[in-house]
Design the sequence.
């Protein structure tokens, strides 16, 4: 069966520090991969999605970036964190090329920028 | 443009009472529809999905949802709510080749003992 791992679970970082969140998927090949952000009490905001290695689409201009160095690895990064980057970050995957494939989410990373 | 609306930001029900969470969507073709549940501090868990066929779909944890094309709705229901159902519920529409998902803003459910 497929599983998705996301880490760390919680992170407290000072403003201006770098960020690296990692997500890996097991049990499937060539998945679509996604990074979402959820601000407190609000819905989901799509940040990035990827349909293959090295292929990243950005939905929202910001100081975050994403990379997909391997088929089942998706990394969210920042060179310098802002206070506004605080939030709950969710990685997700779906089956490539199938519109009826649901998103499967990781357990999320709670990021607090101080 | 595609969109999903969950009109109820917050709902409170008594344990054992029935539940209906509303979801309306805007999409030009036949949508792929999903309901997710999120417990505090956790990721989203898929409750159920609709692609085609029978418009009443069954999901996990005793939930069901009904697709009504004429009303552009996909409401989530449960006959008898348990205290453990307290969570945030999200309706979503999938489109295209799987790259696009549109989420509602969520409905927070409180269950009173």
Sequence:
């Amino acid at each position: 069966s497929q599983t998705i791992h996301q880490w760390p679970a919680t992170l407290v970082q000072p403003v201006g520090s770098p960020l690296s969140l990692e997500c890996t998927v097991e049990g499937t090949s060539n998945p679509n991969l996604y990074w979402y952000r959820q601000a407190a009490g609000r819905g989901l905001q799509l940040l990035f999605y990827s349909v293959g290695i090295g292929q990243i689409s950005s939905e929202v201009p910001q100081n975050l970036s994403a990379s997909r160095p391997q088929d089942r690895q998706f990394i969210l990064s920042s060179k310098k964190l802002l206070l506004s980057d605080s939030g709950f970050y969710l990685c997700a995957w779906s089956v490539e090329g199938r519109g009826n494939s649901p998103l499967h989410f990781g357990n999320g990373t709670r990021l607090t920028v101080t | 443009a595609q969109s999903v609306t969950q009109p109820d930001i917050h709902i409170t029900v008594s344990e054992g009472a029935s539940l209906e969470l509303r979801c309306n969507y805007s999409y030009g073709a036949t949508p792929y529809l999903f309901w997710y549940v999120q417990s505090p501090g956790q990721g989203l868990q898929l409750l159920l999905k609709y692609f085609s066929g029978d418009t009443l779909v069954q999901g996990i944890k005793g939930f069901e949802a009904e697709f009504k094309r004429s009303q552009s709705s996909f409401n989530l229901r449960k006959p008898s709510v348990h205290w453990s159902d307290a969570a945030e519920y999200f309706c979503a529409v999938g489109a295209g080749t799987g790259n696009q998902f549109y989420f509602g803003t969520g409905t927070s459910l409180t269950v009173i003992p």
About this structure: The longest strand of chain A covers residues 44-52. The CA atoms of residues 66 and 76 of chain A lie 5 Å apart. The radius of gyration of chain A is 13 Å. Chain A has a mean pLDDT of 92.
